[in-house]
Amino acid sequence: MPTAEPLVAAAAALSKEDLLHDYRLGWESRQASLAGRKEVFMGKAKFGIFGDGKELPQLAMARAFQPGDFRSGYYRDQTFMVAAGELTWQQYFAQLYAHPDAEAEPATAGRAMNGHFATRLLDEDGNFKNLAELKNSSADVSPTAAQMPRLVGLAYASKLYRQNPELHELTQFSVNGNEVAFGTIGNASTSEGMFFEAINAAGVLQIPMLVSVWDDHYGISVPAEYQTTKQSISEILAGFQRNAPGEQGFEIFVVKGWDYAALVDTYLRAAEVCRREHVPVLIHVTEVTQPQGHSTSGSHERYKSKDRLGWEEEHDCLRKMREWLLAEGHASEDELTQIENDAKDVVKKARVAAWDAFFNPIKQERDEALALLDKLVAETGEENSLHDMVEQLRHNPTPIRADIVRTVRRALRLVRANRRSAARQDLKDHLEQLLAENADRYNSYLYSQSEQAALNIEEVKAEFTADSPTVDGREVLQACFEANFRRDPAIFAIGEDVGKIGDVNQAFAGLQDKFGELRVTDTGIRECTIIGQGIGAALRGLRPITEIQYLDYLLYAIQILSDDVACLQYRTKGGQKAPLIVRTRGHRLEGVWHSGSPIGMILSSIRGMHVLVPRDMTQAAGFYNTLLRSDEPALVIECLNGYRLKERIPQNVGEFTVPLGVPETLQKGTDITIVTYGSMCRIVMDAAKQLAEVGISAEVIDVQSLLPFDVDHIIADSLRKTNRVLFADEDVPGGATAYMLQQVLDEQQAYRFLDSQPRCLAAQPHRPPYGSDGDYFSKPNAEDVFDAVYELMSEAEPKRFPSIY
Question: Does the N terminus or the C terminus of the chain have fewer Cβ atoms within 10 A?
Answer without folding.
Answer: C
